[in-house]
TrEMBL record:
<keyword id="KW-0645">Protease</keyword>
<dbReference type="InterPro" id="IPR007863">
    <property type="entry name" value="Peptidase_M16_C"/>
</dbReference>
<dbReference type="InterPro" id="IPR011249">
    <property type="entry name" value="Metalloenz_LuxS/M16"/>
</dbReference>
<feature type="signal peptide">
    <location>
        <begin position="1"/>
        <end position="21"/>
    </location>
</feature>
<protein>
    <submittedName>
        <fullName>Insulinase family protein</fullName>
    </submittedName>
</protein>
<dbReference type="Pfam" id="PF00675">
    <property type="entry name" value="Peptidase_M16"/>
</dbReference>
<dbReference type="GO" id="GO:0008237">
    <property type="term" value="F:metallopeptidase activity"/>
</dbReference>
<feature type="domain" description="Peptidase M16 C-terminal">
    <location>
        <begin position="246"/>
        <end position="427"/>
    </location>
</feature>
<feature type="domain" description="Peptidase M16 N-terminal">
    <location>
        <begin position="88"/>
        <end position="204"/>
    </location>
</feature>
<dbReference type="GO" id="GO:0046872">
    <property type="term" value="F:metal ion binding"/>
</dbReference>
<dbReference type="InterPro" id="IPR011765">
    <property type="entry name" value="Pept_M16_N"/>
</dbReference>
<keyword id="KW-0482">Metalloprotease</keyword>
<feature type="domain" description="Peptidase M16 C-terminal">
    <location>
        <begin position="725"/>
        <end position="901"/>
    </location>
</feature>
<keyword id="KW-0378">Hydrolase</keyword>
<keyword id="KW-0732">Signal</keyword>
<dbReference type="Pfam" id="PF05193">
    <property type="entry name" value="Peptidase_M16_C"/>
</dbReference>
<dbReference type="InterPro" id="IPR050361">
    <property type="entry name" value="MPP/UQCRC_Complex"/>
</dbReference>
Amino acid sequence: MTFLARAVRRLAFLAPLSALAVPHAAAQPSVEAAATAPAIALPTPTALQRGDATPWIYEGSDVPRDPEWLFGKMKNGLRYAVRRNGVPPDQVSIRVRIDAGSLHERDSELGYAHLLEHMLFRESKYLGPAQAIPTWQRLGATFGSDTNAETTPTHTVYKLDLPNIDAAKLDESMKLLSGMVRAPVLSDANVRAEVPIVLAEMRERGGAAQRSGDATRKTLFAGQRLASRSPIGTPETLGAARGRSVSDFYKRWYRPENTVIVAVGDMDPEVLAAEIEKYFGDWKGSGKAVAAPDFGDPVAPAGADPANPVGETAVTVEPDLPRSFTYAVLRPWRPVQDTIAYNQGLLRDSLAQQLINRRLEARARGGGSYLYAQVQQDDVSRSTDATFVSFAPIGEDWRGALTDVRGVIADALATPPSEEELAREIAEFEQVFVSSVEERAVLAGGRLADDIVQAVDIREAVAAPETVLTVFRGMKDTITPEQILEHTRALFSGPVIRAAYTTPAAGEADAAALRTALTAPVEPDASARVTASEISFADQPVIGEPGEITQAQPLGVLDIERVDFANGVKAILWSNDAEPGRVAVKVRFGGGYRSVGPDDAVYARLGQMALVGSGVGELGQDELDRISTGRKMGFDFAIDEGGFTFFAQTRAEDLEDQLYLFAAKLAMPRWDPNPVLRAKAAARLAYESYFTSPAGVLGRDLDSAIRDGDPRYATPDLAAIEAATPEGFRAFWEPILKQGPVEVLVFGDFQREAAVEALAKSFGALQPREGLAQDVAARVPGFPEAGETKVLYHRGDANQAAAVIAWPSGGGVTDLRESRQLEILVQVFNNRLLDAMRERAGASYAPNVRSEWPSDIAGGGRISALAQLQPKDVPIFFEEADRIARDLAATPPTADELERVTEPLRQYISRASTGNLFWLFQLEGSTQDPRRIGLLRSLLNDYSRTTPQAMQALAQEYFGGREGWRLAVIPQGQTLATAKAGQATQRGGR
């Protein structure tokens, strides 16, 4: 019943919203409807488990079946699951899961599971060498998002999201996919071609963070296969790979009985089932089936104290990484009977963890000895059932931080939670489950397919959201503090405890010191217990007199409406029931980065971490948590080029209070210093880690460097961080929160009249906003002069480098249509650069070309190409990027190149346009510049229709006769001349 555990985990790990979420097919019409094709005659599927037959995924489970899923099991052992789903419309999502990952590898095969993932895309029965990616692009699938794969310790999954689906395209895609899975071409030549790409991927992942992660994994999972089998493999085993050895691994594990296929989409599920049976029904494995290896159990060392069984401990010194400490209570993993009773136990476990995590967070907010701390139970790779405790000490006193964290946990182990605390967490859980039911109709097909894959991986069943809510509501009144105490104690019981500590300071700790600290007695600390007293919105001060509406009229797009208030606030509303239970709210105010002065970068950066936490009126961060208990509310803050933004996903019943919180932040901000001090500590700890890799250096310096050194976009250095104060923070942000103009966008499932009334009482009641300073509009970031390559240095591995080349473009609404056409050109550039770097440098999929065109300001755009590579390949990257830019300006791209780009773009826009967020993001800012509204009409054509000549003209405009600005990030101690010499040596040796 995997949905239960996943939904609970969302409480602690809220994923960021996609820029263009894909909701239900019943949403507003897509920009372009999919074409239909004649049906293909298919026999009735024979392997479907119909009637009273127990589907294979529910064997041994009393969890009620989700009737929307159909399951089948073929005679060759292959299992499948199919389901109709119209999210997004006209799409089918296919997942092929092979029950083999890095834990199935022999010592001589490390990395083979992941290498095979690459090989299947290299060449197969129906796809020639390097034809998989172009073929899927021609079918409208975007490489990397619609076409992808993953390898973990326990499985390999191939993922395909097919847009604009019809019977013929589905049949062709299933045929191609079957050729990849059943008959890849595993020749010596293909292995030789693909191994360098995998090694490049290994190199890009390497460095201090990877070394620390490897050391932690080796310690925590000592004695188990998981300790030494990372999916990426080793240079030695990959270098020794040959067609025969890779084929041996393939034949051992790529078998129908090890395979599960999931197909979900806007099509009759019986058709999906028939297609699977057509192309996989006669698949037979090669030779006899082989049992999976024993993954091993966590075992305490001989002589360990049963009351405190601390085993392996290790300290890793990495001078450029911040301190981090993890210890784990480990238990053997065993398959379970996925019953309702079992899931009720998981829920009590999750409540126990959430109670501890809230207390740990409260202590950190109050200025504790650690930046963050968290407890999480996890079943790791079918190898261990573990409870992990992780935290980041703020200073050198890791022992004090460990004592503080253990003290909070000791209190949870000694005394039950209060009834009030428990009721608060139960309310939070129920809100998550209720929202899942409300949003069931808008779950994307790819997400549903991934749910099945996850369930198969952990050997559990799946449950409908309604089942989860019913189970929870049926048990919530029986949950007692004593039960939670019992589950807490079980979570922290196990045969062995292991710990790993990463520190930048040599001599600060050793394995023996960790063991001593973990076995030392600790006093329960009840001071972190969080009060659960209720706070009501009804008791909060009003913002002002409800505002008067001066204008309300249709926007001219769909049924979207604009409402203006007398104080200057303007709102855009779209009430629709396309996405049940969802309401998106976005607030734009002020001037964004235009309002940031050259000396204010540190406060802009700290504001992104601390502005919301600093509070609203009398509500501090803890009070904000309490007032939203059991509610669906959010408070994301961001700085854009032309405005500051608040964003939240809420629901109709919480919309009024959500709007109040946002408006109150502007009207009556609180200035609690603790979030600012905590943000300073976080920035301080993170700063040194920027040096650990080329990616870290780019993350620190590229935003400013590519804008001609504009200090507003610079990462504050340690001196600036230390000099920042809560008083300075307030002095910077207080006047910004008074700035206008203010635009509020509300899109989703709400009642129009109620929303207008709530807006009048909140944003309409604000005092008129102050205008932007006259010089703000002129603060457009510049672009550096091309010429000598700018060189930055990292302190990571000597075989790592990064390179960036960029050209200036534009910004603003005036040429917005041209910016969309520019996206087509950039994608052509990206495809060419990917092919070139794979051919010349064995680069992985990292080369990336993108266009950034800020629509809020009149300029500041750029086209940039970036790659992570070896230092010796930096000159190759610049050569190839320059060559491609010149070629595009000199010669029009081919029609096939354009088709590989325009069809995925057309499908992407068509799918995204079925969702509220698409229209919200397209229309934001239109109250200030109404031209955005008219430009919507040409959006699809602008992104998907062009000519080779138009592309050449754009290339001449932006690349012709213009040298690109260059940036290289190379290891300390090397020079670009060294890299060029390395390149020459490589060429001479060929």
